[in-house]
Specification:
Elements: E1 4-9, H1 13-25, E2 30-36, H2 40-49, E3 54-57, H3 66-73, E4 82-87, H4 92-99, E5 103-107, H5 111-134, E6 157-162, H6 170-184, E7 189-193, H7 200-204, H8 212-225, H9 238-243, E8 246-248, E9 256-259, H10 271-274, H11 277-294, E10 297-301, H12 309-317, E11 320-325, H13 329-346, E12 351-358, H14 366-373, E13 377-382, H15 386-394, H16 405-416, H17 436-447
Parallel strand pairs: 1-2, 1-3, 3-4, 4-5, 6-10, 6-11, 7-9, 7-10, 11-12, 12-13
Antiparallel strand pairs: 8-9
Helix pairs in contact: 6-16, 11-12
Amino acid sequence: MSTIKVVIGYTDYRGEMEPLSLALALDSRLVVVSATNRGAQAVFDDAVSLGADVVLLSPLLPGYRPELVQDLLLHEDHPIPTIGLVPAAGDWARTMHEHGVKGHLVTPLDDTQIRRALQLIPEVVQAAADERASGSYVPLPTPVRRVQAMDTSWRSRTIAVFSPKGGDGKTLLATNLAAALGVLAMRPTVVIDCDVKADVHTVLGLNERKNLFSLAEPMLAPLLRDAGRRNGQLNVSLQRLQEFTTPYGSRSRSKLDVLVGLPRLPMAGLEVFTRQPKRVDELLGNVIDTASRHYDFTILDTGPDLNQPWHWAALRKADLVLVLVTPTEHSIRSLRNVMEPLAKELGQERFELVINRWDEGYGVRQADIVEVVGLKKFGTIPEGGVSCGRSINTHHPLVLESPPGDVGEAIIALAGNFYPPLLEISGRRGKRPVGGKLFGKLARVFVE
């Protein structure tokens, strides 16, 4: 049997996703092409678009319905059997077998259940294929049950957004993720602009006066003059970090802070930075560590140049790197060429794929992109067209629009992986600017 593509729909990261991902990564027969907790329909969509062979599915996911199990098994290209991730409490094992699952695992997953998973997955894939070939499959009746959405676990995260190619949408994703978590969800969040071509403050319309250069240069300059000065010189306290962050919006409506990057590109070429790259890496790493201890979510916007210590520190310190790719040959090739050395240095499990500006009109299948790049898919953002440019020009994140539009909704769904209650939050803030307001802002930009 060839490699089995697995999609996981989980509700409990520590009890389901974490042990599964670790075990499946060690089995050469299996590859996880998508893992999500943003809803049962998203699991179905990923399974179909990525050509999954099997789905591991929690019935506690928002939007779970029996028909999803049947529709996957009856999929016209090939059967996609489902294995239930059922909680120990309740009667979900029996219920999901009524719905048509081919097996189940009891959560939270212990060593016994993980061993069972490794045995069960190839068995149900083979059984479903044999069943389809024999023509004996008869859909089971599926009683309609209402599944109540439950609170799901979440944890603090440090998330970098990366692409080896400029212009793939890193800053737009980083700022919108931060706005979704810090404004919509009202969780303490900071976005740190680690890109030497800093644009976060431009996209969000913030003053650049307090910035990473002002934080870093006074700490690094004495070390350049006196290499012997080391002890404690690069420690970054919470007080110092907050001295250089800028709040986004009013404190009553936002818990998002921004650390503006280097406001001018030539600053990265100053001697104080270029002559001591290891200290730059250490200092920015300490900044990120301090932020990660204080904020629920730390979002790092990175640049494509891996020779820059600013960019490298962000990738090194992130516990998850969202890697952007667009459905163009140049973007896909650029990413494939850089991933091998990156994965070797930092570990492939740190990186997950976001397909940006997706449209079927590009003539490339999502499954092909995932296969060529060799990364697990985290999510998809559709082609946004004019709406993305308008958001940048008006300094208003798409996720805060009312309604947020296709791109905004997709990014909210991505953010829901980190903070699931966000998916239940309604009443998006902000209204779409129209007419003279837009052109007035643009006029000020170009005049200034």
